[in-house]
Design goal:
two-stranded antiparallel ribbon, Arc Repressor Mutant, subunit A, about 5% strand, 2 domains, Four Helix Bundle (Hemerythrin (Met), subunit A), 11 helices, mainly alpha
Amino acid sequence: MKSSPTVPRRTPGDKRKQLPEEVAAYVRELVITGEVSAGEFLRMEPIAEAVGVSNTPVREGLLLLQSEGFVQLVPRRGFVVAPFTPGDIEDIFWAQARLGGELAARAAKQITPAAIARLEANIEDYERAAEAGDTYALAELGHLFHREVNLAAGSRRLALLLGTVVKQLPNQFYVTIEGQVDNSRTEHPLLLDALKKGDARKARSVFEKHIQGGATRLIETLKERGMWAEEQAS
């Protein structure tokens, strides 16, 4: 199993997620980026070393990924990487677009001036981060922008459902998709404009287009990186 260059090593002072979730995030990114292939068995020791945990949270994290369909448990042999297809990506983005679109529409009906101001500041910060090429800041700011819209909708349960979908795509990896940052620089302001005008239909439309465009770009990016090359050759 190759190591993932996009997952930073942790230091003792870092504020850490619950350990199984951290393991799940690490392995999930290995699967999505093609660092591990379908049918490959995952050894617990290298994962534990890479994340800086013991084998127990590694097993718990892999069980989380089993429930998401990223790995399968083979009795007496361990965890094996499950197939991850373009159709899987389309399904994840479809669910995110529909749930997020509904939240954006609801937010348009009741968003506060304070929330609008925070979104305006976020867009300005995103522009500066894009100019500086700061991918870490871009990932954080993109997450915060969407979180602000979700909170403005005032629909906690729907936002929680969306969160279970969003976590299946690594936040830091997402901004490395070709064209994704430029897309956000264009469409975040369009969504903000719809929210300012209280235009629920436009807010839904912009959000769904924003998310579904990401699916197409991600699939093309992974194809260019050689993912699914064996399937295409067979």
